[in-house]
């Protein structure tokens, strides 16, 4: 698709320019939908790495805040006071940790790239609260991006990995040992592709429940199956595990019809697993799973030791690679005869812990788990429609996948996770007289 960096840079500039015009002329809802429908381009670099490496999403999110400041701040006083204080403490900890770190400039730039996700999530929550129909529009936009990713993978199956946004893909897209390809779609990393498809798969199930036409139901079920196939083609074990965890949640919490559907699908997948071609990367990678686990465990132990050495503020957000290149030089890989130090410890939670410390990590977990736990509680109280389980399954699957790979490095995964959180917070409750939401 492109063979050098120039077309990629021009695509990012064009996306920002068009997005800027769109932001200026349209409403907040349409601006948020623009970000979601143009999701494949949101992870492109908008500035050079030497200038911070800001992504298209970062600039558009800040543009939304600049154009709709009243909307952003409206109703903040209605938020739980504990949530407001936690956010302020979290940002303050990140700021102090960045300034106190060995690499303050790198860390401050990384901090500036964290804030757009909070801005976006806040604006999306406000938009969903203000317009009850906007919720379904957001889901439709996410499913559209999921379809685009499937199209990308289909084209890559036909013409090869030259169909991509990037001059060079992540090394994990090709396994020379088994001569297999892990298809990344419009991502740079095949693991991010797998996680995105695992998330999107449940959103197609959500949609199928609303369809009255049998053809439409079958279409969405087919897209769900296509997403599952895409997860296998990505070769991502973490994404496959997340998909199974999401299915388990549906099995445990769903009604008998949903349970029968999940069990039937599980039997079908199990049969295909036994009959599948060894050319599927995610399958033939299982033969060295024990060796791979031992390697990851050694990296996790080193990351845990780093967090114990820096318990209060961590080493500074975005500083893992800089820190390991000086203090943990055993954490490296040889790529094309070049030493590359780890930029994450093969575990998203440990990366966050080492970079922001135990207090910041605890707040990070609260931000993730509070909406999910309240949603589940409200569901069991029969205050939420059963379809919320599909949103919860998507989010729970990502929580599991995050355990083995730090995927928030990609703005597109960050957008999807922030969107899922906003959808959990604003999912319509059955009794309109109740004004409590899982926020």
Helices and strands, in order, run as HHHHHHHHEEHHHHHHHEEHHH
Helix content: 55-70%
Taking Cα atoms only, what radius of gyration do you get, to the nearest Å? 21 Å
The fraction of residues assigned to DSSP E strands is under 5%
Mean pLDDT: 83
User: How can the largest sheet be summarized?
Assistant: 2 strands, antiparallel
Description:
The protein has helices at residues 5-25, 28-37, 56-67, 69-73, 81-100, 104-112, 115-130, 134-159, 190-208, 214-234, 237-253, 256-275, 281-284, 289-309, 320-327, 348-380, 388-401, 411-426, and strands spanning 174-175, 180-181, 332-335, 338-341. Helix 3 (56-67) packs across helix 7, helix 5 (81-100) packs antiparallel against helix 6 and helix 8 packs across helix 9. It is globular. With 439 residues, it is mainly α. Helices cover 67% and strands 3% of the residues. It has 18 helices and four strands. The longest helix has 33 residues, at 348-380. The strands form two sheets. A two-stranded antiparallel sheet has the order 1-2. The chain has a two-stranded antiparallel sheet with strand order 3-4. The two termini are 42 Å apart. It has a domain at 81-287 and 344-426. Strand 1 and strand 2 (180-181) form a beta hairpin.
